[in-house]
Amino acid sequence: MIDNVWIHEFPAAITVCDAQGIILAMNEKSCTTFEKDGGANLIGTNALACHPEPARAKLSTLLESGSPNVYTIEKAGIKKLVFQSPWYKDGKYAGFVELSLPIPEQMPHFVRD
User: What is the tens place of the pLDDT at every residue in 20-47?
Assistant: First the structure.
């Protein structure tokens, strides 16, 4: 699991993979979210194998390019913001972090200039 204690019970799914797509860490919410796919047993496996097409091709492109990807989804009546971003170790591209945050159906938006 992840060493930072606060991450374990953080109310959003956090999944971390290396530059080849190997899942390195999942917090409790991520393990629960992906329980049908193996939960914590996914650690050490390739995230590409967990995705059907065309999502697999998209993830492969993200891993190769190191470009971030942000979108919203709704599944089982729960709306989520999915934020996929590269992470770095000693300034070198090391893989991707995916945050999947539940968001309310109606959410305030503030413009602060």
Answer: 999 999 999 999 999 999 999 999 999 9
